[in-house]
């Protein structure tokens, strides 16, 4: 060991944006530089950093102190309902990676999200003039370069999109969770990711 | 990690290992990491082993309940260590959560998964020390998230079980970490070897998916407060 870095982390509503920025910065470094880069320790530390912080951004529909329920993250909702049944060849991270382009495309379709997505685009592409479209192009390029399997490659046969959407609905009902407007967003993600 | 564990009390150690058909493959690195950790932790804390094996990619309510029963039989109800991939980390988190509720029924995990769906999760918790040593990026992500994902074979769904441990320590040694290259992951998939883990690039793309999702939630003014737990990370480079 060359160095021991010990730190504690507490995520609150206030610093969630900071965690988001840190994650975006680290994942961009991992995808922009190769494993053979000069500073392999830095590359590894960014890979670890991205994993630590993105884990903190995930929400599972937890019950709040006031007995309300948080909206769950879309990757969590999709994997909870679909991964074991429809995508048995994928593990959790491969499945989420396969959703990246679809997630970006679905976000592009919602104007309300544009400011947050533009900010993310600036951090990830390293270009302060980058638009949401640039982020989508960047994501597609990096997805192809990584040779990650597509969602279609992780399925068994050709699942019917209606069956998949019904499974998502059933999952919401079973767990007593309402994904609300995000349900439409998830439909977009699946359509794009499955090329339907 | 050493400061978090009290040597006077028994410890339940949960580890992962590759499936039989993968031994000899690139997952040997994970196996080596887990065996090394088992050995060093065993020597350090004078652990006596009781071997129990579960074969599934995700922890199930049944395997969590069996681990809880074993912890109770061995008196290791206050200290849990999880070493290895995401499944072992999720299982350790789930076991610590069940033990912290003090539920003495036969199948507490199954019940808790059902209870939380109806909003009646027990809030009177006892403190259980949880120490996690992930060996993969998926394990690291599982360590820092607020819930475990438990496979329900009947519903064919992954059900989140909130991690109720008030504090947990996560030890990450980047020298020992198994970082799979994209080429290796592709080769394993082409050969049809099951359980091929995600490559570093895939993990980064997964993080990107989570980031965009978080940006969407942020734009919709969802409040992230209270959905969190305190985690002490020890990252060694």
Characterization of the model:
The complex is a heterodimer of chains A (196) and B (237). Chain A is mostly helical and 196 residues long. Helices cover 62% and strands 3% of the residues of chain A. The radius of gyration of chain A is 18 Å and the shape is globular. Chain B is of the alpha/beta class and 237 residues long. In chain B, the strands form two sheets. Chain B has a five-stranded parallel beta sheet with strand order 1-2-3-6-7, sandwiched between helices. In chain B, strands 4-5 form a two-stranded antiparallel ribbon. In chain B, a hairpin with a 4-residue loop joins strand 4 and strand 5. Chain B is globular. Chains A and B meet through strand 1, helix 1, helix 2, helix 3 and helix 4 of A and helix 5, strand 4, strand 5, strand 6 and helix 6 of B. Strand 1 of chain A pairs antiparallel with strand 7 of chain B.
């Amino acid at each position: 060991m060359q160095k021991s870095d010990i730190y504690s982390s507490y995520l609150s509503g206030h610093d969630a944006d900071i965690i988001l920025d840190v994650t975006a910065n680290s994942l961009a470094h991992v995808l922009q530089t190769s494993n053979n880069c000069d500073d392999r320790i830095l590359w590894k530390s960014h890979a670890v950093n991205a994993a630590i912080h993105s884990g903190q951004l995930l929400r599972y529909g937890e019950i709040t102190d006031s007995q309300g329920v948080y909206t769950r993250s879309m990757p969590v909702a999709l994997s909870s309902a679909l991964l074991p049944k429809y995508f048995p060849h994928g593990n959790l991270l491969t499945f989420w990676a396969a959703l990246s382009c679809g997630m970006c495309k679905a976000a592009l379709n919602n104007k309300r999200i544009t400011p947050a997505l533009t900010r993310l685009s600036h951090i990830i592409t390293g270009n302060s003039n980058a638009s949401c479209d640039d982020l989508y192009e960047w994501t597609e390029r990096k997805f192809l370069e990584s040779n990650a399997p597509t969602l279609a490659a992780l399925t068994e046969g050709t699942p019917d999109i209606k069956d998949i959407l019904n499974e998502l609905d059933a999952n919401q009902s079973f767990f007593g969770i309402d994904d609300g407007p995000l349900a439409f967003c998830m439909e977009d993600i699946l359509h794009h990711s499955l090329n339907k | 990690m050493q400061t978090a564990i009290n040597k006077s009390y028994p410890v339940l150690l949960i580890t992962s290992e590759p499936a039989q058909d993968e031994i000899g493959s690139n997952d040997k690195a994970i196996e080596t990491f887990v065996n090394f950790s088992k050995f060093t932790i065993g020597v350090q804390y004078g652990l006596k082993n009781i071997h129990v094996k579960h074969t599934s990619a995700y922890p199930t309510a049944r395997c969590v309940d069996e681990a809880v029963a074993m912890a109770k039989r061995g008196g290791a109800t206050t200290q849990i260590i999880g070493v290895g991939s995401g499944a072992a980390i999720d299982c350790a988190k789930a076991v610590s959560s069940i033990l912290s509720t003090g539920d003495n029924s036969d199948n507490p995990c199954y019940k808790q998964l059902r209870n939380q769906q109806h909003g009646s999760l027990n809030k009177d918790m006892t403190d259980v020390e949880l120490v996690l040593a992930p060996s993969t990026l998926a394990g690291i992500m599982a360590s820092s998230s607020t819930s475990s994902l438990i496979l329900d074979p009947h519903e064919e769904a992954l059900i989140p079980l909130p991690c109720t441990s008030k504090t947990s320590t996560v030890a990450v040694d980047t020298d020992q970490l198994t970082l799979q290259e994209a080429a290796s992951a592709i080769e394993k998939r082409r050969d049809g070897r099951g359980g091929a883990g995600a490559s570093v690039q895939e993990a980064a793309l997964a993080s990107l998916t989570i980031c965009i999702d978080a940006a969407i939630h942020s734009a919709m003014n969802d409040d992230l407060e209270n959905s969190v737990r305190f985690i002490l990370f020890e990252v060694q480079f």
